[in-house]
Amino acid sequence: MTVFTRSVALSGASNFRDLGGYAAQGGRLVRWRRLFRSDHLAALTAQDAQALAALGLARAVDLRGQLESAAQSYSLAAVHYHALPIEPTVVQRAKEMAQAGQQMTAPVARHLMEDTYRAFVSDNTPQFAALFAHLLEEDTPLVFHCTAGKDRTGFAAALILRTLGVPEDVVMQDYLLTNGLYRRPQAVQGSAPQEVLDVIWQVQAGFLQAAFDAVERDHGSLARYLTQQLRLDDAARERLAQLYLQPPAGA
Known about the structure:
Layout: E1 17-18, E2 35-38, H1 46-54, E3 59-62, H2 66-71, E4 80-83, H3 89-99, H4 106-123, H5 125-137, E5 142-145, H6 152-163, H7 168-176, H8 178-181, H9 194-200, H10 205-219, H11 222-229, H12 234-244
Parallel strand pairs: 2-5, 3-4, 3-5
Antiparallel strand pairs: 1-2
Helix pairs in contact: 4-9, 4-10, 6-7
Pfam families: Y_phosphatase3
GO molecular function, one term: phosphoprotein phosphatase activity
Family: Belongs to the protein-tyrosine phosphatase family.
């Protein structure tokens, strides 16, 4: 019996992990080695690239903003690259505050992060709908990522898992795994007070909850958001289950 590990050990990416193995709708498990989430892939070594090739990685969806992806571009052999840019609003807001002479504190940073997650729902639904469209095309192994693999990627992973029927508490546990895995860039150390950096470069349950609260407030329910905004009708959700869940026992 093959034993899979959730975190994939790579030298050039610390937050690359598998979404497989979680119990979903009907007790079926999310398939291993089909859906991956990660921080950016521009620092991968040749050995890392070989490891991903061994996983059969065939598709990469980049959620980074245009300047981010241009500054740290990458190309992986036999991997189809798709850009779905979501601009990093926290960084821009922080710069604007600094230019205006306003102090960044941990509570202010938390508020900015929660606003960012609400904006995923209000401003970036087309990108998440496009991600699901890619998922529906085929089930070749796919990784989706942003820069740190925690916010844009975190909400995307949560949407995918919730759509597949993974319970909310398990989805939150997966989201929070970032705090034990992600290695923040050394360059950011000292760029702000440590308590501010710990907010911006980690994840908190309240951030993800802010996004799902916005879904409920603006669209009435997650089911309605999936159907009306992400274009996931019953047939699409059934296809997702066929592609990314293990067959029912005895099937």
